[in-house]
Amino acid sequence: MEDIQLNKMALLQYKNVEIKGISSVVPDQVIYKKNYTDFISEKETDSVIKMTGIAQRRFASKELNSVDLCYQSAQYLVKNLAITIYSIDAIIMVTLTPDYRIQGSAFVLRQKLKLKKECFAFDIS
Fold first, then answer.
1. Alpha-carbon span 74 to 90, nearest angstrom
2. 72 CB contacts (<8 Å, ≥6 apart)?
3. For residue 121, which phi and psi values (nearest 5 degrees)?
4. Nearest partner of 89 among 67, 121, 114, judged by Cα
5. Rounded to two decimals, what is the model's pTM?
6. pLDDT at 13
7. pLDDT digits (tens, 9 = 90+) for 42-80
8. Average model confidence (pLDDT) for the chain?
9. Are the C-beta atoms of 87 and 113 separated by less than 8 Å?
């Protein structure tokens, strides 16, 4: 294996960084797999549940999107950590259902939370 030549790479180092909190949220509307027996048999439904371990799915209303859910979650986190919006230097939004591909949902979330423009916003989706 070839030695990595560090002097030819751009490296960044961040000091004094800490994660103050992590928050998550899921939509409140639950649809159980057992409700799908109109489309597939109960035996097939049980088989899918057994193979995947997934017995339910969660759905948001049409008026609610991923940024809205993350906004609620972030507000909860700020309140419970007793921090100010202005003390946040970075926000990472992780979702399987991003609202935006270009610009990124984290940037929209940063704006909605009224975080400072210097706040690092990053999407993982």
1. 12
2. 25
3. -120, 130
4. 121
5. 0.74
6. 82
7. 888 888 889 998 888 888 888 999 999 999 999 999 999
8. 87
9. no
Task: Kindly report the number of other CB atoms within 10 A of residue 35's CB atom.
Answer: 12
Q: Is 19 left (phi over 0), alpha (psi -120 to 50) or beta?
A: beta
In one letter, which amino acid is 16?
N
Taking the domains of the chain in order of start, what are their residue ranges?
23-59, 63-125
User: 75-103: per-residue pLDDT in tens?
Assistant: 999 999 989 999 999 999 998 888 887 88
Helix (H, G, I), strand (E, B) or coil at 87: helix
User: In sequence order, what are the residues at sequence separation of 6 or more whose Cβ sits closer than 8 angstroms to the Cβ of residue 89?
Assistant: 118, 119, 120
Radius of gyration of the chain, Cα coordinates, nearest whole angstrom: 20
User: What residues form DSSP beta bridges with 31?
Assistant: 57
SS3 58: strand
